[in-house]
Each structure stands twice: as structure tokens, then as C-alpha cells.
Amino acid sequence: MFLSALQLLTLEDTLFGDISDKIYSSFIKEDRYVRLVEGLSVTARLTLYALLIGIVLGLLSGVLRIRRVPILTSIANTYVTIIRGTPTTIQLTIIYFVILADVGLPLVWVASIAFGINSGAYVSEIIRGGIMGVDKGQMEAARSLGLSYSGAMRYVIIPQSVKNILPALGNELITLLKETSIAGYISLVDLTLAAKSISAITYEYFTPLLVVAYIYLIITMMMSKGLALYERRLRTSD
Amino acid sequence: MIEVMGLHKYFGELEVLKGIDADIEQGEVVCVIGPSGSGKSTFLRCLNLLETPTKGTITIGGLTITENQKQIDKFRQKMGMVFQQFNLFPNMTVLRNLTLAPTKVLGRTFAEAEEKALALLERVGLKEKANEYPSRLSGGQKQRVAIARALAMDPEIMLFDEPTSALDPEMVGEVLDVMKELAKEGMTMVVVTHEMGFAREVGNRILYMDEGIIYEQGTPQEIFGNPQGERTRIFLSKVL
Questions:
Q1: DSSP assignment of chain B, as one string?
Q2: Is A147–B101 a contact, with Cβ atoms under 8 angstroms apart?
Q3: What are the chain A neighbours of B149 within 8 Å (beta carbons)?
Q4: Using one digit for the tens of pLDDT, what is the confidence trace for B177-213?
Q5: Share of chain A above pLDDT 90, in %
Q6: pLDDT tens per residue across span B126-161
Q7: Nearest residue on chain B to A135, judged by CA atoms?
Q8: What is the pLDDT of residue A15?
Q9: Chain A interface includes B103 (CB < 8 A)
Q10: Which pTM value belongs to this model?
């Protein structure tokens, strides 16, 4: 009895007892929290740039996979197959060490391009699904009125597909935000690597990683909430 | 006005149209009747190349559209089409449904297009619905809007693909009335329909299609009064 109580005491001590010490050494001492702030800023920029690149690539390849154009359509198909069929870490490191090795771009840009290319393949599927989800009769009606294919797409099909696409794109944004946590593979100091860099000084992993996980969770929860609100508004407009 | 020669259409291995020849004169109202799967809708959809014919030619106003597919948008401006499922644009108001193509394709100003649209809506009895979205309309109202939308392009020919088949029975009349008015004004019309009463009353000529060919054709009196072919007789005995 005596022994187990002592053990309990020690355990409690290590877990909670010196928690303020841990917070102090992880974040306050020598302004270490600044690393997290800077890391968060890198993660935010990286996610945003990658999303934009992904949307452009996804739109192009998504449309090409519906409107068949010789050569270009097979390039789009190959792109989606390769990206969806290989791990993101491998894509990131290949782009960093091989494809963009001698270009001398800032690390954030290398990572943005890599994650953008990765995200584009998934956005491509979202766009394709969104457009194909619009009733076939809409295209026929638009064409029967004399609109060209691109006119029908622009004025009739794409505005309607936005309703299908935007919610899925929101999910992709959430996935992308979490995916960027592997940017440390190419030594870009994002939020995750910033936490690890604190641990490397303090030899204490739990506190920084827990806080970082919490930050990711808060951001994704806010995104989900925003998305849910948006979807509800879409539904009421039906 | 429309000349169809040796029209064949395959869907994969399935031969849906097995050689159609037909002439449609200006101002004529041609009603196409026949059992399900006889190819009537496919025939109609070939006329504005919503389906690409496998073989054969279609000539409209002296130009062979099957050989000038690049200009198909130009031809389609002159050919309105009304669909069984209405196919109104759900994200636009009724008015915008009517003004989209005239402004984007014919380059009319919005004011011009709107004036014309409102006049057409008045004609089909739906002027007060101009600013509603299609989801707020009944089936019969939707179809009348769809007819007005096609007319907004000033077509010379109107194609109707079973325009009343998706309607509740009490709404069929209002749509047929609009079509009758249109026929009276001399519009060239090709109507695929199951409404035998309409075909008999309004049609100048009836095409009876069966198994991918025009099995029999003639005036409504000939077809409904004294059908020659056996299959025509069997079909009519079932539907009349």
C-alpha cells in the first residue's frame, strides 16, 4: 500500500505536478512560443498557396477528364493516377531533392508546389464529380438553345456544379492543412517541426506536441463549423 | 425545310434507327407516334444533332448539317427544343432562363431580351412568374416556360420531345393549348407525343414509327381513320 501510493505520487508528479514548469520551459523561456507562431504562419501560408495551386491544377485536369482532348486528357489521367497512387511524403521529397533541387526556390515555395500538385489530383476528382453531378439535360437544353460547349459550361453547368464542389473543397482544405505537417521532411519549419525544435532543446516531447495538436484541432474545427454553416445556407436556397 | 435521308443510329451494337427518310415542309406540324423504344425520340434528337447520326444525311434549309457539324450552334439557334423533363436552369429565375441565350448567343441587349421574354411569358400566361425560380413552378408551368425559352431565340422550327409525358394529367391541357396556338401561327413543328388527341387535331401529318423505321405515314384521317399496316392497327387499338 505504502509503495503504490508513493508510485502514484511520483506518476502524478511527472504528469501534472510540474506542468507549469513544462509550459514555462517549452513556451515562455527564451520566448520559445515565437517558434510556434512562426511555424503556424508557415503552415497557414503553405496551406493557402497549396490550395490555390491545387485548385488551378484540379480545374484544368478535372475539365480535361470530362471534355476529352487528345494527349492532354491522357496527361491529366496519368497525373491523377500517379499522385493518388503514391505517398505524399515520397512526392514531397522527390520534388525537393530531385525535381526542384537546383532551382533555388524558397523552401515554402517548394513545399507549396509539392502539396499543390498533390492536392490538385484530389481537387480534380472533386471538380469532375461536381460537374458530372449536374443533370445531363442541362447541357442538352443549353446546347439546344445554340450555346457553344464552353458557353454552356460557363453559364449553365459550372454555376450549378459549384453547389456540389464547394463543400468537398472545404473538406480538401482540412485534409490539406493536416497533410502539411509532413513538411518537416524537407526541413521546412512548419507548426509541427517548430514543436519538435522546442522538444530538441527541452528533451520534453509531450507538451509542445499536445499544444500543436490542439492548434490543428481548433483550426480544423473552425473550418468544419464554417463549412456546415455554408452547407446549411445552400440547402435553404434550394 | 427538313430533309432526312437514310438515317441510321447505333448505340453500340444496338441499331435504334434503321434507315429513316422524311421530308418536313415549312409550316407543317408533324406528329411522331409509336410504341416505346421505336426510336421516335432518337429520331427527333438527331434533327438537332443532340445525337450524332451513325449514317445518313439531314438537310435543313438547304444546308446539310450532318456534314457541317462545326456550324451546329448556328443551326440550333434556329431550332427550338422542348424536353420531356423541361430542363429549365434551376439556378436562374424564369426571366433569366429566357434571356440567357438571346443575350449570350444573339448578342441582344438585356433590355431587348427582357422585353421579348416578358411578351413571351404573357403569351404562355406566366408573366407574373418572371422573377420566380423554376422550383416554385408546377410541371405545366415549367413546360410553358420551357416553350417560351425556346421561342425567345426566334426559331424557325420547334422540336417537342414528349412534352407532356412527365406532367400530371390535369396539366397536360395547358401545355397542349400553348402548342396549338403555336401551330396556328404557322410554326414548323415536329412533335413526338403520346397524346393521340393532339396529334389528330393539330398534326398535318402523322409518322408512325416502329422498330427503328417509319412504318406508316399519312394525314391524321388516314392514320387514325384507316390505318393500312397491321402494326399500326395494333398500336392504335391499344392507345385509343
A1: -EEEEEEEEEETTEEEEEEEEEEE-TT-EEEEE--TTSSHHHHHHHHTTSS--SEEEEEETTEEGGG-GGGHHHHHHTEEEE-TT----TTS-HHHHHHHHHHHTS---HHHHHHHHHHHHHHTT-GGGTTS-GGGS-HHHHHHHHHHHHHTT--SEEEEESTTTTS-HHHHHHHHHHHHHHHHTT-EEEEE-S-HHHHHHH-SEEEEEETTEEEEEE-HIIIIIS--SHHHHHHHHHH-
A2: yes
A3: 145
A4: 999 999 999 999 999 999 999 999 999 999 999 999 9
A5: 61
A6: 999 999 999 999 999 999 999 999 999 999 999 999
A7: B87
A8: 57
A9: no
A10: 0.80
With CA atoms as reference, the chain A residue closest to B98 would be A145
Find the Cα–Cα–Cα–Cα dihedral B217, B218, B223, B224, rounded to 10°: 140
The CATH number of domain A32-237, selected from 1.10.10.10, 3.40.50.300, 2.40.30.60, 1.10.3720.10: 1.10.3720.10
Is residue A26 predicted with pLDDT exceeding 80? no
Residue A201: φ, ψ to 5° = -85, -45
Phi-psi region of B125 (alpha: psi -120 to 50; beta: other; left: phi over 0): left
